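ingest -> validate -> predict -> emit
validate: passed (alphabet ok, no gaps, 212 aa)
predict: started
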Amino acid sequence: MKKPLRGLYAITDSSLIAPGRLLDVVSRAITGGAAVIQYRDKGLDGPRRERDARDLLALCRSHGVPLIINDDVALAQSVGADGVHLGCDDTPLTEARRILGAATVIGVSCYNNFELAVTAQAEGADYIAFGRFFASQTKPSAVQASIDLIRRAKATLAIPVVAIGGITPDNGAVLVEAGVDMLAVVGGVFGRPDPAHAARRYTQLFEQEGNT
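emit:
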């Protein structure tokens, strides 16, 4: 059974993490409450990426946290990752599902396009992601999404909704209040001196919402 998706979705970025520190900083993010880890590395060193992914998978499994691979269906299949996240220029969802099987979590970027989300659900996506919602250093030119898009998706779709793009512990509260299931964060966790403390500030948003 696939684990429910809710909370902090922490996404790695090789430009923010010093060489040799990937496992340490991800471990700290998990200690801070990260519910899902995505391995995102656009480097061309295939063997290194596979080693990193395998090491991360072992770490995540030891903590009961799913590991999602960004964009790369072949890498996700090779290491036996828990899932893959697909953008508009990546492997089609139906093809990824055929390759990876029914048990694999497949998420899809839908940017600010509700129709893409409807299609993704119909094709078997396990979650959809909208964004950016705020100014983003990771993807400064990404399209702008509105909070109303989250409300519409939560009222209409049956799968989890993820928000991404410039999310901080301060502005993330309005997204959680709108019903988003997960906050996807890159620099807000891995660009901070203490990823555990940074992650904890995001996880507290969901705890506070659950107590209201």
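The radius of gyration is 16 Å.
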